[in-house]
């Protein structure tokens, strides 16, 4: 039982960070109906940004999100305005090809600039942990989870209590109706992509102390983001949060009882089961 509880707690903690990745992707899809295959590469950019802030300026990875969030928001807004905005009315396959191309450009540009060598962000607390009732809890994962909760609550407040947030939700529900009501949907799209990029970059910053950093790491998290988003329901922020925690727990428990090599297999089995039996996701609704 202690082993099961240990794996459950670890899964929930890492699942909170996964949820940030899924929320970012679902905001982008919800507002623009664009499937962003470059989402994991935005996370990778956040990881490298955090690494160099730490090694060059000695800024703690968890403190660095104060810098990472606005910079990644501006980067995401730039990508949307210059590239994504041009294909909003195009065929879905054109949108997919564009985002795949953007991801390849980002990962290869980073590889050219910093080589493909793995980088490790080592802090004094990277492997620190403490015990509660015989259960070991990772300090960096707990800090990441606490920051994730704070950011998620702030995001919910923004989306539900501010005029801009309500305009984003209205655009996600019905883009044409929102435009008829006087909402600047192009501006909402820029803000949505900026938010998605900043959430991905923040997730990258939070996992940097416990994960290898390399240019192709984005592809791993792009797949996770899609599994999380489809599991929770495309366009559902609450669903993405739930999906992230479920995936984190499934990985952690599966890794303990079946071996680390089975972690990804379990995740994709869950993915296939959801597609087979509830294609709209756990909290999603079937709509065009």
Describe this structure in words.
This protein is mostly helical and 288 residues long. It has one domain (2-218). Helices cover 72% and strands 3% of the residues. The protein contains eleven helices and two strands. It has a two-stranded antiparallel ribbon with strand order 1-2. A hairpin with a 2-residue loop joins strand 1 (129-132) and strand 2. The radius of gyration is 19 Å and the shape is globular. The mean pLDDT is 90.
Summarize the structure.
With 288 residues, the protein is mainly α. 72% of the residues lie in helices and 3% in strands.
Summary tags:
288 residues; mainly alpha; two-stranded antiparallel sheet; 11 helices
- Note the total helix count: 11
What is the H-and-E element order?
A: HHHHEEHHHHHHH
User: How would the global form be characterised?
Assistant: globular
The domain tally reads: 1
Structural class: mainly alpha
Q: Record the strand order, biggest sheet.
A: 1-2
How many DSSP-defined strands? 2
Percentage of β-strand residues? under 5%
Question: What are the segments in which pLDDT stays under 50 over at least 5 consecutive residues?
Answer: none
Question: Radius of gyration, rounded?
Answer: 19 Å
Q: Which sheet architecture does the biggest sheet show? A: 2 strands, antiparallel
Instruction: Give the N-to-C terminal Cα separation.
Output: 45 Å
Q: What is the residue-mean pLDDT, rounded to a whole number?
A: 90
The helicity comes to over 70%
